[in-house]
Design goal:
single chain
Amino acid sequence: MPADWDWTRLKLELAYEWEADIRRIVRGLITRSLRSGQPYQAEFEHYKVTAWTRANGQETYLVIGTENIADPRVFAIIINAIPGIDHDSWLPEPSGVPGIQPGPGEVIWSTIMPTSVAAQLLDDPSEDS
């Protein structure tokens, strides 16, 4: 029969898998937006995430909208899902951004995405989902 150690390990493995799924979803939304310039949205559990990229010359502006996320750990997973973007570079957009106005319970954050990060996401075939 399973011991306490087995249940603890299962709990940790499921948490790791859930975090990996969130990261994959967020990177996929950003990749799709990089290709089309349109916002994309996903829901998981009771959370909602929107990603939108907008090119402006040599810079790519990245906007992430989060809805119903009260747990700062979940928010940290979303913001840190994109390798190569320093978590300190994110800025809150309390009044929204052109084209996206925050809905009830939604928080919008933005940053500049380095071209190397955008290229990495576009070149990774696993980000096509």
